[in-house]
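Thread: Modeling a multi-component assembly for a lab meeting

Hi all, long-time lurker, first post. My supervisor asked me to bring a structural picture of a complex we are working on to next week's group meeting, and I have zero experience with this. I have the sequence lines for every component (322 residues in total). Could someone generate the structure of the whole assembly? Inputs are pasted exactly as I received them:
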Amino acid sequence: MDAISWSTAGPAIASAFVASLVEFVEAFTIVLAVATLRGWRPALSGTFAALGVLGLMIVILGPLIGRLPLHLLQFVVGVLLLLFGMGWLRKAVLRAAGVLPLHDEMAAFAAESAELSEEARRHHSSMDWIAGLAAFKAVLLEGIEVIFIVLAVGAGRGLLGAAATGALAACIPVLAVGAILRRPLAQVPENTLKFIVGVMLSAFGVFWTGEAFGLDWPGGDLVLFALAAVFLVTGLVMVVALRRPEAEVAR
Amino acid sequence: MTILRDVAGMLIGMFLADRALSGAILCLVALVGVAIKEAGLQPLYGGAALIIGCVGIIAAVTVREARRRGG
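Re: Modeling a multi-component assembly
Sure thing. I ran the full set together rather than chain by chain. Output:
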């Protein structure tokens, strides 16, 4: 891969990696809650069933995307990226400034455990079935987000393989650290990662939308870095401007 | 059915979590698109309008949300 193609592939791989890392951590928390309450069998059954559904979605949707006209694909992906990326950036700024509370994996773990126990008590049905379903839903929902991110950052310029590699690479540290610790990955600086992802996806959104309108960006793919810098500076300025005294900005 | 409902809810939430933000982005894209395709605006100026508009939108919606929450 030469220097120019790295300038496009690099941000795509990095965006897919960081965004997927966040999603894998969130899915891992739920699967771990299921495994802690009912053992690994329902947790893994639900996980693999969801991975099967996600695989089916990729097999069905993948070829369809290849048939779409490039400008239409860039426009749809660009607008969806702006909606998704700026949504993440907005929430990350508000959390970093202390306006919204930070996402807490330990709290999510406790809430999921309590919900599973309550579900089993109410329905008097097999706890393993309910637990497996909870793992299935968590992996499916987070997996759909990962698929969208891979499609969004990769589809516009034939970088699906690179983006998918970034997403799969994110799976490795989550599973490795999770297998060793066997507890929620509460130390992951989730809001900082979401901030970075929001910046990168927003930059990709402006880039693809502009290309769909026939804009030949000055500097080519390298303009992605400038666009990302604009969103990064804007986000940081907003954090400083809105910061409240007890904000946990460093996380 | 619960799973389908949850998936639909998550997909809507992914893109339309904040109505003001989503509405503003869609309006901006529509305006820039019309200006380039119908009014003959140079695409480069359209790109500049897109980035300036996005910066303005993100600033406005975060300030609005912070004020709404008592900031």
